[in-house]
Amino acid sequence: MDDAMGDGLRQLVQEPSTDEIDAALRSVERRARRRDHAVAAAAIAGVVVVAGGAWVGFAAVDGPDVSTAVGPSASTTTSDAVAGVGSIPTSLPARRSDARQVQDEVNEFWQGLPNPDLVRSTGIRTADDGEEIVVVALRADASQLAEEIHARWGPDVLIELGYHNYPEGTPGDASCPQIETGEAIPGLEARLELDDGGVVASGADIRGRVVLTNTTDREINFAPTSAPVGYVVEPGSDEVLGVTLQAFAAPLVTYSAPPHGSTEMGIFVGTTACQPASATPGLPPGEYEVLVAQNDRGADPSASEVHLVTARAPLTVE
Mean pLDDT per 10-residue run, the chain (318 residues)? Predict the structure, then answer.
């Protein structure tokens, strides 16, 4: 994270004025759009979050479970979050001028939904001409919800369905992350298990766990440096095709595997299509793999090799 982006984020945790919050969010968003994949920055009790698995924040939340995710699925209001998924138009259609009132209406609406985790975040963006508009970022499989929001608020809300603009259907600023490379941690074996038999609907998310087994006579500690996510790839490939847009707090967690024992690391997997040329918000139905590649924060920074935990499991997208 560059110094300027860090300054923008730090403004959010010092009880700033409304004007300062708006300025900081605009600063974060401009830089977030330059990153390799989508970034969501939320000023929630000083916690900075991201989507797609790369940290830009600095706040720590204890606990290894993916229930530390920040967003509608964790019953946390992200009304001042910046989705950072699509581009900001410089000219916008006629609409209501009270963007914050529109945002309040949208937030009240999605909080009453039976499945509120379809909403990734809401926010207000400012175009180059100074106009404000509400942006709602939805999970890639939330097309029916996108249709309802568009019918209710029309030009007052920009809708992002995964990385696609709705209702235009045009791709937004999508890009896929690069997989970490390095050597395995000696004596630590990893096995990936997915919930629901490894079957998920296109655009939806699925949970799982990496079982870490210690085959040595000493305790092994593993401290991952990135979000607890897995990426969807072609079988045997390292090229990422699908990601989750779920936002996560930044847990500084260390997993300890006792001698000849095991521990588990919860992970989150999404099937939002992240290739810029993707024709649909979610991955096409088919057979894929989930690849987890986590760098070890506890490794000696002066060492020439990077230690990783890597694991794969088959995934069926329907």
Answer: 46 47 47 36 34 36 33 32 36 65 91 87 80 91 94 91 90 85 88 96 95 94 87 94 83 87 94 91 96 78 67 96
Beta strands in 58-182 (DSSP E): 119-126, 132-138, 157-161, 164-166
CA 221, 198, 271, 287: dihedral to nearest 10 degrees? 120
| Cis peptide bond upstream of 167, omega within 30 | yes
What is d(CA 200, CA 84) in angstroms, rounded to the nearest whole number? Answer: 25
Distance CA 318, CA 213 (A): 32
The pLDDT, as a whole number, for residue 296 is 83
* Nearest CA-CA partner of 133 in 156, 163, 105: 156
Q: With contact defined as beta carbons under 8 Å apart, do 38 and 49 qualify?
A: no
- Report pLDDT for 19: 53
Residues 317/200, Cβ–Cβ less than 8 Å: yes
Q: Count other Cβ atoms within 10 Å, centred on residue 108.
A: 9
Q: What is the CA radius of gyration of the chain?
A: 20
Residue 302's pLDDT is what? 54
CA atoms lying within 13 Å on the CB side of residue 61:
19
Separation between Cα atoms, residue 143 and residue 138, nearest integer Å? 8
Would you kindly state where each structural domain of the chain is located, as residue ranges?
Answer: 3-166, 183-317
Per-residue pLDDT, 247: 78
Q: For domain 183-317, give the fold.
A: Immunoglobulin-like (2.60.40)
Residue 213: helix, strand or coil by DSSP? strand
Of 130, 120, 159, residue with least CA distance to 244:
120
